[in-house]
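During the no-cost extension, the postdoctoral fellow (Dr. R.K.) reprocessed legacy sequence entries with the updated structure-token encoder. One reprocessed record is reproduced below for audit purposes.
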Amino acid sequence: MSIKESQEKRKLPSRLIFREYIESLSVAIILALIFRFFVISAYKIPTGSMVPTLKVGDFILASKLSYGFHVPFSGGARIGDSLPSRGDVIVFRFPADESIHYVKRVVALPGDRVEIRDKQLFINDKGAQYTDLDLKDYFPAEEMKGNFKVRKETIMDSNREILVSEDGETEFFGPVIVPPEHVFVLGDNRDSSEDSRYWGMVPSRNLEGRVILIWLSFDWVHRWAGDKLPQVRWERIFQSVD
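Re-encoded structure tokens follow.
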């Protein structure tokens, strides 16, 4: 056996190991992309429109299979298409600019009659019931500047916790009828949210997924390390979203 043949044989195992490594890495990347685009997606909350449910600095996961399987390059078509339930917190493409993702709560479905009278939500002429909750259970005292209340809002077959300002003007809206294949959404921070009251309903084809979990949360108001790093809200990590 020549010296050249001996060297090539010694190199062969390394080449095989490298090839297997590349193949394994490629499969892992492909599976991760499939998971990311079709199963679970991650998003960051940049505004306070969903307080107290979601806070600025929350990182959330949304199930993309909740309302059907997204067909690639179809403009929003889904297999097994289904609408959200009342009360679902959803991620969707903003109808006026589909490059932007919004997170809001579904409060009404196709055919529902929606109205707000003196800040009270009505669906199909049935008014929501409200229970005041302890503000201190949701916010440190230094975070709340103004006259706010956290309330439990119960209507139809769903309930949620909302934030309302007692300093704001009395609000009236509607009535409007939700058209077919659309949903009516509101922010849980009712007096600081741009939602269906201002820009209309969300088409079902714009739905991206249902928010299921907060997997990480940073508090950029209270910092450490010389004001360079945010505090971690440990109590919010792996908190489910209802």
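The first strand starts at residue 40 and ends at 44. Confidence is low (pLDDT under 50) at residues 1-7. The remaining legacy entries will be reprocessed before the final report is submitted.
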